[in-house]
What does this fold into?
Amino acid sequence: MQVGIDMGTVSGGQPAKLDIEELLATRLLVQGNSGSGKSHLLRRLLEQSAPWVQQVIIDPEGDFVTLSDKYGHVVVDGERTEAELAGIANRIRQHRVSCVLTLEGLDIEQQMRAAAAFLNGMFDAEREYWFPVLVVVDEAQMFAPSVGGDVSEDARKMSLGAMTNLMCRGRKRGLAGVIATQRLAKLAKNVAAEASNFLMGRTFLDIDMARAADLLGMDRRQAEMFRDLKRGNFVALGPALSRRPLPIVIGNVETSARSSSPKLMPLPDAPQDVEDLIFTPDPEEFTRPIVRRAPPAPRPTTDILAELSRSTPAATQPVATESRAGSTPEISEEEREERLAAVLSEILADPQAAYRTDSVLYQEFLVRARMRRVPGPPMAMGEFRRRVAIARAGVDEETAASEAWATALSLSAGVSDDLQGVFLLMAKAAIRGEACPSDLRIAKAYGTHSARRARRLLGYFEEQGLVVVHTDFAGKRIVAFPDLQAETQPGDPNATDDGADVPSAAE
It folds into this structure.
């Protein structure tokens, strides 16, 4: 179904149409300096398309939460754990509810981590929930920076990876990215390059004007025009907008942001005793407590889940919740560990668990732990990944109690979380003198079906000096661990799980 929404007018007063169906397949990049009207453009796009497509807005300043009043968007506060955000994002896709993820009150690194967790939760949704979603990211240069900044490298990689997935791989999952940035030079090129539609607003810096002109296929000498654009005026290009650069004026909007541009106001008449008013302290100032601005308290997760279960916007009356403090009986630490181990075993017993992301498995783990009334704080994501890696290695009690296995666990701490399962699988085979696992077995431990990737993982371990890979005279693979003084028995890399050879491409 082709749906053209009205974005404003072009020269001559004709309506400027944007094809939503085409936009879902080709994505959109909006660029303009502060005050050029980017947020106004995004609001116009969201209001006009709200009846036609599900929307998710990553809102760093909390400007778009007002959409909830008129269009029923669920407001999700970003001050939550990564697991909570991933679970909410997954349910957002299941129930096809539009939402605004507001990150107001968080510092830049917290905003990056929250946005990444939410985007990854949407990206990892089951295939049956891959419905079309318009994902709008305001101030995208914060979440996909072209260079490292003051944030940690881990947060930068996490956020950049989520944005890259959205723009590069999101189309097949129904995710259509709409990203807005103040400066193209600050936005990662691999993220910006995936957009096929562009709306370029007022720009002053030469480097940004040159990049905007290149993206629009304009001559460098024509780039000067971007300095002359008025607020709310943009140059459009793309299959969803126009096949040639087209100046458009963005139309009016029905909702407004909570913040607005500053307006000039005349100063009040100065009183005659102005110096006394300024330099004489008020006695109450010495007794008045210092009030520090705290970020707004997040809404309870139960409230958001209740809204997601409805097909209509949430009611304005607060939902009363009863405290369940003390309802879970106290248990010993040993029994708690037994329950956690049982939950983990249930999850990993599913044949498809090997191919699900850690975030999805972690969310399932938390839900089942609550169902089993496991008391105490939830297990951290890092500890969960560690236990999953050990469980997937399939170590028996005798091996687990050995000094060699303790050394293997220590060595595995030196590799990234996603590689620990593969490393421990190979280490167990070496310690017990078992045949070297096949490419398919290694790939399964990594959560993929690609045998080629399994071979690359072994090459990576060898580059890090952790293993030595060689073959015997029959061409079977052997993996040696110098730090463990152990090596696997020869194993066929092309064998399947049942030991049969994998047929070649020619067969």
